[in-house]
Prior knowledge:
Blueprint: E1 2-7, E2 10-13, E3 18-26, E4 34-39, E5 46-51, E6 57-59, E7 67-72, E8 77-82, E9 91-98, E10 102-104, E11 108-113
Parallel strand pairs: 2-11
Antiparallel strand pairs: 1-3, 3-8, 4-5, 4-9, 5-6, 7-8, 9-10, 9-11
Amino acid sequence: QVQLVESGGGLVQAGGSLRLSCVVSGTILSINAMGWYRQAPGKQRELVATIASGGNTNYADSVKGRFTISRNNAKNTVYLQMNSLKPEDTAVYYCHVVINYAYWGQGTQVTVSS
């Protein structure tokens, strides 16, 4: 059984920074892709950033240059460093990993005040 536990969300003023973490535990042979998605009220869930097992990264245009995704394979952890946050970044952020199947975290709320 695989579990994802996210942390690091919270309330921050526009221009501020937050760092999200997602720890994957359970029966894991190897983790392929890891990533972050977000869902704002009334909107569909959207991709924020992904990172492949080899380190290749992909970002949504809206976060390029502000957010950085990274992973620590030894700790089965993926991070999302979010800088220069904007009110439109307000959403529930979900961790997503692909092992044998795709797994989702429970979500962590990020609120950016103007």
